[in-house]
Each structure stands twice: as structure tokens, then as C-alpha cells.
Design a protein that fits this description.
Length: about 290
């Protein structure tokens, strides 16, 4: 049986909302982290375009492309057995019409082993979303703050704080459900707006900076683990400071090497004394 057949399906995720079960989502960008997250029982692993920021050191998510996303999705796929795997479609991969969007979405499934893809809201989103769904590709939507649309750091702010803006976000979410999305990410919106969307949609909502009334939650794993500190959004909860722990380990390694403590005898390989004598006898003749 292949890994894919063991993974949570769209129906499994929909049933969690129906049964009142919270849905857990985290990002992953490589095999080791994906394997750990999967074994911990997380429901959905997203190969997020946050890869641009937390792994590649870029300023904005819109700076990453298809080949990089596919490369990391393939690595993550090798570490996932149970969780649904979703590929985050990067900026420009679905903005130029349904045909190109479907072609790129299909690559995440066929080449990288993903089970679904995610797209962010943009003005022509609905025709693209419908085309992807009609092509038989499970699709997750994304409304509220849409990082791919951001070109300035000061634009990273809560969306939907005014009534008109909130109504637009609510309607966008409803439209994405009508287009066939099986789930929707709600990013950086007031908690009561997220609650309205969650109550009015029949599909699960996954919150990030949207309060506790969503059907599920997602975080960037490097934020959760304390590995990324360039930006620290209010909605992030750091569960461990791995950055400091890694720094301490690397510092100890450096000191051990400088002081001749590493490698010790137990870290070295040996040669039989008889073979060593033969070698040295041969060397002396040379």
C-alpha cells in the first residue's frame, strides 16, 4: 500500500468539522521535520510559501517560485505517511488564468506527491478555483491577510477591522466554498469575523491569527519551534526556543574542536596493529 492511501482524505477533514473535532495544521519544508510532525499526529502538513522567509531568507513570500516549492514538497512528501499533504501554490503560478493554474496545481500532485493545493484570494480567484476543482484537484482557499499580495512590511496587518472590509472577507470565503474549496485559511482577521465565517460555512476554517473559534489552527513550524525571529507576529505561540538550543550545541562543538576534546577516541576508527605495521614497513621502503 502506498503512503498516499494511508493519508487523511478530504472526507476525513470535512468529517472533523461535522463531528466538532479540531483540525491541526503545521508547515514543513524538508524530510526530517515533516517526518516528526507527521508522527506527532498533525492532521495536515502544508508546504507553505513561508519557505521563502524562514528557510531561504527572502523578505516576501511572492519571491519564491514553482521549482523551489516543488523541490521542497518532494522532500516533505518522503516524510509523510498519515497527514494530508498540501502544496502552497506560489505567487504567479495561478494568477495568469485557469489553464496555467490547473497545470501548475497538477504538478504538485503528480511530481511532488501532494494531496491538495492552496491558493490565496486575488481579484480573479474564483475562475481559477473552479477550474482547479473541476480538474479533480482538492483545493484549500485563503482569505483575510494574503501575504503574496504584500510588497511592503508595513502592510502586514489585521484585515477586516471595518464593517465593509469584514463583509468582503466573509463573502470571499463563501464564494470560495461555492467554487468547491474543501477548506479555507483565515489569516489575521478579528476573531468574531472568523467565528461568523466558521458558523456560516459548511467546510472547515483553519485560523492563523483569527482566534480560537475556527475549526482548526495552523502555524509556521519555525515560529512554533523558535527558529525564526525576523518577524514575531502576535498570534504566534513559541513552544520551544530551538534557536538557542542549537546555538548552545554549536558553541560547545566549536569549543571542543579548539580544545582537542572532539573527536575523542570513541569517535575514531582503528586499523589492526598488524596491518598498520605492514603499511609502515611498505612506507619506509618507499
Amino acid at each position: 500500500m502506498s503512503n498516499e492511501l494511508k493519508r487523511l482524505s478530504v472526507e476525513d477533514i470535512l468529517n472533523k468539522k461535522k463531528n466538532g473535532q479540531k483540525i491541526t495544521v503545521l508547515t514543513a519544508y524538508d524530510y526530517p521535520l515533516a517526518s516528526i510532525i507527521d508522527k506527532a499526529g498533525i492532521d495536515i502538513i502544508l508546504v507553505g510559501d513561508s519557505l521563502a522567509n524562514v528557510v531561504l531568507g527572502l523578505e516576501f513570500t511572492r519571491e519564491i517560485g514553482m521549482e523551489e516549492m516543488l523541490h521542497h514538497s518532494k522532500a516533505v512528501n518522503r516524510g509523510v505517511q498519515r497527514a494530508m499533504l498540501i502544496g502552497d501554490m506560489p505567487y504567479g503560478s495561478y494568477h495568469h488564468g485557469p489553464a496555467k493554474a490547473v497545470k501548475n496545481a497538477r504538478r504538485f500532485l503528480d511530481e511532488a506527491g501532494c494531496n491538495a493545493v492552496k491558493i490565496e484570494w486575488f481579484p480573479k480567484c474564483l475562475s481559477v478555483a473552479k477550474a482547479i476543482v473541476e480538474a479533480g484537484i482538492p483545493l484549500m482557499g485563503h482569505v483575510g491577510l494574503t501575504p503574496q499580495a504584500i510588497k511592503r512590511l508595513e502592510d502586514f496587518k489585521v484585515q477586516g477591522k471595518e464593517a465593509a472590509a469584514a463583509r468582503k472577507i466573509i463573502q470571499n470565503a463563501k464564494n470560495l466554498e461555492a467554487a468547491g474549496c474543501f477548506s479555507i485559511v483565515l489569516e489575521c482577521i478579528p476573531d468574531r469575523i472568523a467565528e461568523i465565517i466558521t458558523q456560516e460555512l459548511g467546510i472547515p476554517t483553519i485560523g492563523i491569527g483569527a482566534g480560537g473559534n475556527c475549526d482548526g489552527q495552523v502555524l509556521v513550524s519555525y515560529d512554533l519551534l523558535g527558529l525564526f525571529d525576523r518577524h514575531h507576529p502576535r498570534f504566534v505561540k513559541e513552544y520551544i526556543d530551538l534557536k538557542y538550543m542549537i546555538f548552545k550545541a554549536v558553541t560547545r562543538y566549536r569549543e571542543d574542536v579548539l580544545e582537542g576534546k572532539f573527536p575523542a577516541r570513541e569517535h575514531a576508527f582503528s586499523i589492526k596493529e598488524e596491518e598498520y605495521r605492514k603499511l609502515m614497513a611498505k612506507e619506509r621502503k618507499l
